[in-house]
Amino acid sequence: MLTPAEQALVESVSIDTVAADTQKLIAARSDNPGVGEAQAVAVLHEMCERIGATVTLQEVQPGRSNLHATMGPVDAPSILFLGHSDVVPAGDGWEGDPFTPRISEGKIIGRGATDMKGGLAAVVAAMGAVSRAHPEIRLELLCTADEEDQALGALAALESLEGRSLTACIVAEPTNLDVVVGCRGSTNLQIDIEGKSAHAGRPEDGASSIYGASVLIEKVREAHHTASRQQPDSLLGRPTWNVGTIAGGTGTSMVPQKTTVTIDRRTMPGEKPQEILADLVRMVEQDLSTQEPGFVEPLRLSGSVMLEMPGFKTPEDSVVPGLAQQALADVGLEVSLTGWTAACEGGFVAQATQSPTIIVGPGDINNQAHQPNESVEIDDLLVAARAYALMAVRLQQA
Question: Active-site residues: which are they?
Answer without folding.
Answer: 86, 147
